Each structure stands twice: as structure tokens, then as C-alpha cells.
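Reviewers of the previous submission asked for a worked example of the structure-prediction workflow described in the proposal, so we include one complete record here. The input consisted solely of the amino acid sequence. No template or homolog information was supplied to the procedure at any stage.
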Amino acid sequence: MSPDQLVTLASLVHSGSIGVPCYIAWCDELIREESAPPAWVLELSIERTPRKAAEILLAQANYVMSERWYILETSHLASAYEFLRYRSHRMSWEDFLRTAIRISHTKYSVWPTSDFERFLEAYVENEFASSVEYAQAKHLEQVLDEELHELACLDAAFPLEPLRKIEAGMDAAT
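From that input alone, the workflow returned the following C-alpha cells.
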């Protein structure tokens, strides 16, 4: 993984967007696949604290580049990550909007809560019309383009699709 990918992953783990069971399952998969997995993957695979897990990932980024990397502010990535969950049919449009509202309320966000609230209000007023959902989703896809690209770059090294399958299994179990 590149340092940029490690920092993005660390930031998503630190923020809780990628949960402990998900990154541990990802590490377990790497350990099964590789004959000699890197020490940081082994260490990450047993770490149950998101803050410490993020520190492990940042330490690896710092080691690779001999620079000082820091946790990114990730509310924009959290919203984009949730949008990817919507786009992969893991959540409804209404659930995505409610989650985006919660993210923008609880974390520093570049998007005002009122934007997502207006979208939700229009969607409900139009009786959950698929045409409204489509138009709103297309708009947000354009707005989130840079963040979606950043997550796509991360996806090359930390595949989000297997992560989504892991999350789906956890969602089904609860």
C-alpha cells in the first residue's frame, strides 16, 4: 500500500467509518493469502482499538516515506464511503441521507447538515420517488467526485468490496 492509501485507511479506521471487525477480517484475509505477511499487518490484526490501529497504519506510512503523516479529517470521506454503500445497494437512499445527516452533525464536515436535510425532505415529500432519488444521487456523485476517487485509489490496495461483504455478514448477524 502507498503512504497515501495507508493514511486514508488510518483516517477511516480512526473515524470509525471502517470498524474494528472489518479491518481485522481484512488483515486475517491477508495473513491467509500471504506466506510472510508484513509485521504491521500482524500487529493490526490483533489491535482492537481504532486509535491504536490508526497509529499502526500511520507508522507504516511514516516508515515507507520517512515523513510525518497525520490523521486526515474524514467526515467528507465518511459521507463518500456511505455513498458507496448506497451505490452498491447496501443501504437505501433514505438511510444514506439519514446517515449523512448524522455524520455532518457529529463531525466537522465540509457539507452542511442542511443540504442533506433538504434532500431528505424533498425525497419524503415526493413519496420516495425514484426520479428524485436518481437526480439527488447523480448530483451527489458529482459533488463527491474527488472523495469517491480517493476511495477508489484506496480500493486498489484495500478492496472495499470484500469489506462490504464482511459488513453485510455482520449486518445480517445483528
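Residues 50-65 form the longest helix (16 residues). We consider this example representative of the routine output the project will generate in years two and three.
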